[in-house]
Design goal:
7 helices, 13% strand, Rossmann fold, alpha/beta, 174 residues
């Protein structure tokens, strides 16, 4: 039985790497955010706005526990999942956690391109965006570093890079 949780900040590549890793390891793949959206028929953004963060985090925790019953799966979590309730220890107890570690500089480059899809980043420019990411990484570092595996995923610019990261993770996790 394999259950692998990918954790890390938004833009770290959890979904991208997760899909490739699941193919290479012949496992199912679940993106927790997509799972929540399918269950509630609303986007994460809508849930956050309509219900508030506290209710959203309750939903997230409940559905994390639900999908943790699935075996032979790679699960991509939302960036905040490890930081609430007992989620990090729960994931460590029920599977292998992998922190895709990326510098705030690289995350800022990646998120600059897609910040219009991330409401929390709306209106942040250049240094403001980088400082926001740096501050949040600092707050989340305590939880992220509790992962079973800390993996440097800094270089993820091409499909080949994603493939190489997934190959390296497969070797570590097999």
């Amino acid at each position: 039985m394999k259950r692998i949780y990918l954790i890390g900040y938004m833009g770290a590549g959890k979904t991208t790497v997760g899909k490739e890793l699941s193919k290479q390891m012949n496992l199912s793949f679940i993106d927790l955010d997509h799972y929540i959206e399918a269950r509630y028929h609303k986007t994460i953004r809508q849930l956050f706005e309509e219900k508030g963060e506290a209710v959203f985090r309750d939903i997230e925790c409940k559905l994390l526990h639900e999908i943790a019953m699935i075996e032979n799966v790679v699960i991509s979590t939302g960036g905040g999942v490890p930081c609430f309730f007992d989620n990090m220890s729960y994931m460590n107890q029920t599977g292998t956690t992998v922190y895709l570690k990326i510098s705030s500089d690289e995350l800022a480059k990646r998120l600059e391109l897609v910040k219009h899809t991330r409401p929390i980043l709306k209106g942040l420019l250049g240094e403001e965006l980088k400082q926001f990411i740096t501050d949040n990484l600092g707050k989340r570092d305590h939880w992220y570093r509790q992962a079973s595996v800390i993996f440097d995923a800094e270089k993820m610019l091409t499909v080949n890079d994603v493939n190489e990261i997934a190959c390296a993770l497969k070797k570590l996790l097999s």
